[in-house]
Write a structure and sequence with these properties.
By secondary structure, this protein is α+β, with helices and mostly antiparallel strands. The protein has nine helices and 26 strands. The model has no long low-confidence stretch (mean pLDDT about 95).
C-alpha cells in the first residue's frame, strides 16, 4: 500500500509520500521554439525538416510535411536547429498539448515548444508527464477563437518528481502498456477505415452507374468517369450552379468572440456535413452582416488544407458566416444539392475536383477554376432515388462506425487515465 500525501497542486492531486513537486524548468537543459518563414523562396529546395503542430501525433516524429531552405536557416534567426531526441509540445489552437519525440534534427514554427531534459529527468518519463498534463494546458490557454499557452506556462508547470530510477521504471512500464493499447486502437481504426472505404465505393458506384445493374451504358467521354447510363449526361459544375463565391478571406486574429454568429471554417467541413463538435468560433452580428453568409442547400467546398472536402448547409445554419470556403449555390431545377454532395465526395468527383487545384507549395482550389469540374447528371427523379438509397446505406454504415468510435474513445480514455495514475504515483508499478 502506497502512503500518499497531498501534492498541493490541483492537476496532480495526491502523490507518494517520498515524492515532491518541482517547476519543470528546473529539470530542463533548454527550451525554445521557432518561426514561420514568409515567402515561397524559404521552402524551395528545402534542406532541413520544418515542424508545425500539424505534424504532432503524440508519438515519434521521424518526418515532417515541409522542409526549409538554406536561405531560411541563414536569414531567419528564430529558426534554431533542435537536435534529435527533443520533446515537442503544441502551444496553439486545437492542437494544444499534442506531443512528439523527435528522431531527426529539425526546426519548428512558433507554435511548437521544444525542450530537452537534464540528467535529472528521464526523457520518456517527461513525455508521459506532459501527456498527463494536457487537460491542464488546455484549461490554462487564453485568447478567443485561437487559444494558446506560452512557454512560461510550460516552464512553470509544477510536476511530480521522484528519483531517476523510479522515473525509468515508470517510463518503461508505460511504454509497454501503451504500446499494447495502441495495437488494439490500431486494429479498431483499421476496421473503421475499411468501413469508410466501403461507404465511399458504394457512393461512387451509385452516382456514376445508378441503381439498375442492367441499364445500357455509354462512354462518358471523361477518363475518370468512364461509362455512364445511356440516358445520363455529363456537364460542368459551373453550368449547374447559379453562383460560386468565396467566404471571407482575410486575417481572423481580432474578429472572434465568445458568442455571436457561428463562423464555419474548413475544420468543420467533413464528409458532406458541417459539424461544430471539435471547436466553435463566433463573430459579431455587425461583422457578420458585412461579410458573406451561407444558406440552406448551399455547398461549401474547402479551398486550402484538406482541399475538396464538401459540406451541405442545413436550415439551422442559415445566416452563418464562413472562412476561406467556396460557397456554391446550385440550380435545383437540374441537380439536387444532396446528390451533388455525394458526387463530389465520391472517388470520381473528388479526383475531378482536385484536378483543378493550383499552387505547388500550397495547393488550393478557387471558384473560377472548379467551374470546369465534370459532373455526371441523371434526371432529378433518378437523383432522388439515388439520394434515398445512399442516405439509408450510409446511415447503416455510419451507425457501425459510430459504435467502433465509441470503443476507440474508451480505449483512449483508459490510456489517458493509466498514464495519469502512473506518472503521479497513484498506481504502483
Amino acid at each position: 500500500m502506497i502512503k500518499m500525501k497531498d501534492s498541493g497542486v490541483e492537476w496532480i492531486g495526491a502523490i507518494p509520500d517520498t515524492w515532491n513537486t518541482i517547476k519543470l524548468y528546473r529539470l530542463l537543459d533548454n527550451i525554445g521554439s521557432g518561426t514561420t518563414p514568409k515567402g515561397d523562396q524559404y521552402y524551395e529546395n528545402g534542406v532541413m525538416p520544418w515542424l508545425n503542430t500539424g505534424d504532432l501525433t503524440d508519438g515519434v516524429i521521424n518526418k515532417t510535411n515541409k522542409m526549409v531552405s538554406e536561405l531560411a536557416l541563414k536569414e531567419c534567426s528564430a529558426l534554431q536547429i533542435h537536435k534529435a531526441g527533443s520533446i515537442v509540445i503544441a502551444m496553439y489552437g486545437a492542437t494544444i498539448g499534442k506531443l512528439g519525440i523527435t528522431t531527426i534534427d529539425l526546426v519548428t514554427n512558433q507554435a511548437c515548444c521544444v525542450m530537452n531534459p537534464s540528467k535529472d529527468l528521464n526523457k520518456l518519463y517527461l513525455f508521459y508527464l506532459l501527456a498527463s498534463a494536457k487537460d491542464y494546458f488546455i484549461l490554462s490557454s487564453y485568447g478567443a477563437g485561437q487559444p494558446n499557452i506560452s512557454q512560461n506556462t510550460i516552464k512553470n508547470l509544477k510536476v511530480p518528481y521522484c528519483t531517476v530510477k523510479e522515473q525509468e521504471k515508470i517510463a518503461n512500464y508505460l511504454d509497454y502498456k501503451c504500446k499494447k493499447i495502441d495495437e488494439i486502437i490500431e486494429k479498431q481504426q483499421s476496421v473503421i477505415e475499411k468501413l469508410k472505404e466501403y461507404k465511399l465505393s458504394v457512393i461512387t458506384e451509385a452516382v456514376t452507374n445508378g441503381l439498375n445493374p442492367d441499364v445500357v451504358m455509354k462512354d462518358s467521354g471523361v477518363k475518370w468517369i468512364g461509362k455512364i447510363p445511356l440516358n445520363w449526361n455529363v456537364t460542368s459544375l459551373g453550368a449547374l450552379s447559379i453562383s460560386m463565391r468565396n467566404g471571407y478571406v482575410g486575417p481572423t486574429r481580432d474578429i472572434f468572440y465568445d458568442e455571436g454568429i457561428p463562423y464555419i471554417q474548413s475544420l468543420h467541413v467533413k464528409d458532406g456535413t458541417i459539424s461544430f463538435e471539435k471547436e466553435k468560433y463566433f463573430v459579431s452580428e455587425e461583422w457578420g452582416e458585412k461579410h458573406p453568409k451561407v444558406y440552406e442547400g448551399q455547398l461549401l467546398i474547402v479551398q486550402t488544407g484538406d482541399i475538396g472536402q464538401v459540406g451541405l448547409v442545413s436550415k439551422e445554419m442559415n445566416g452563418y458566416n464562413c472562412h476561406a470556403l467556396i460557397i456554391v449555390t446550385v440550380n435545383e431545377e437540374y441537380i439536387m444539392p444532396t446528390f451533388l454532395s455525394y458526387y463530389l465526395r465520391s472517388h470520381v468527383g473528388k479526383e475531378l475536383l482536385l484536378d483543378t487545384k493550383t499552387g505547388a507549395l500550397l495547393p488550393h482550389l478557387n471558384s473560377g477554376k472548379i467551374k470546369v469540374t465534370p459532373i455526371v447528371c441523371p434526371s432529378i427523379e433518378e437523383q432522388s432515388e439515388i439520394v434515398k438509397f445512399l442516405n439509408q446505406k450510409c446511415w447503416c454504415v455510419n451507425e457501425i462506425i459510430s459504435k467502433k468510435e465509441v470503443i476507440l474513445g474508451k480505449l483512449h480514455d483508459y490510456k489517458k487515465s493509466l498514464i495519469y495514475e502512473v506518472v503521479t504515483g497513484k498506481k504502483e508499478v
